[in-house]
Specification:
The radius of gyration is 17 Å and the shape is globular. The chain has a single domain, classed as Rossmann fold, CATH 3.40.50.1820. The protein has 8 helices and 10 strands. Helices cover 33% and strands 24% of the residues. The chain has an 8-stranded mixed sheet with strand order 1-2-4-3-5-6-9-10, sandwiched between helices. It has a two-stranded antiparallel sheet with strand order 7-8. Helix 1 links the parallel strand 3 and strand 4. The chain is of the alpha/beta class.
């Protein structure tokens, strides 16, 4: 079961989301943040949230600015914007009577949920999957465009067959974001999940996140998984692990 919703982003445009609803008793509620340009319907987001819902944890997943069914221009977003919109998603859930205790983020979204948790008073637990230690890690996706963007202010950027516009403010914002203090002062339970064979965001990122974090912290190696969790049962397995781990915090 799923409920399609829309809510205002931090800058005004409406964002499209789906709440995957538990078929039976509700154990709790959470919000999921997708990767760099992936969207709410990518395999990792869809499969993880559906599995969590099947285990009693309702999850809101949403398209970031200018992606999927969301309004706005992706190029007007940034890491800071993604963080604030994650907070907006939590607030939407709270306003609808759903007490969000869990944030889950994949890749770039993993970094975003760690940062966003600081502004979400009800959140007790954060799970990152294949997350970079620093948001600037995403520069490898567009490093060939950086000089042009710095000179011209923007450049076309192709992601997943879709033409996006990458802007100077975006790359400056990503470079300025420092996750280290956010991790150290998280004051929530943290689950770090990462594949040792992740060729997009290396396993050393998980090591740095875990080393920086304070207890309660946990690490799970997603053996055999690729970065996008596209293999059979990889996303569902990650969700089942999150479901068991988060139980005390719901």
């Amino acid at each position: 079961m799923a409920e399609r919703i829309k809510f205002a982003s931090c800058s005004g445009p409406m964002l499209a989301g789906i709440i995957d609803l538990p078929p039976g008793e509700v154990r709790g509620w959470g919000v999921f943040a997708h990767g760099f340009t992936l969207g709410k319907d990518c395999p990792a987001a869809s499969r993880i949230c559906k599995q969590l819902a099947a285990e009693g944890i309702g999850m809101l997943r949403f398209d970031n600015l200018g992606l999927g069914q969301s309004e706005g221009d992706w190029g007007d977003g940034s890491f800071s914007h993604k963080v604030r919109d994650t907070v907006c998603a939590v607030n939407y859930m709270l306003d609808s009577g759903r007490d969000v205790r869990l944030l889950v983020g994949h890749s770039f979204g993993g970094a975003a949920v760690i940062a966003a948790a600081h502004d979400c008073s009800t959140v007790e637990a954060v799970a990152s999957i294949g997350a970079p230690f620093q948001p600037a890690h995403v520069e490898h996706n567009y490093d060939a465009l950086i000089q042009r963007i710095e000179a011209d202010g923007e450049a076309p950027f192709i992601a997943g067959g879709k033409a996006l516009t990458l802007k100077r403010d975006f790359i400056f914002d990503v470079r300025a974001a420092d996750l280290q203090e956010r991790i150290k002062d998280l004051r929530r339970a943290l689950l770090v999940m990462h594949s040792p064979t992740d060729n997009t965001v290396g396993i050393t990122n998980a090591s740095e996140i875990f080393r920086t974090a304070r207890h309660p912290r946990s690490f799970v190696s997603l053996e055999g998984a690729d970065h996008l969790l596209t293999g059979k049962n990889q996303a569902a397995r990650a969700a089942r692990i999150i479901s068991a781990w988060v139980d005390p915090y719901l």
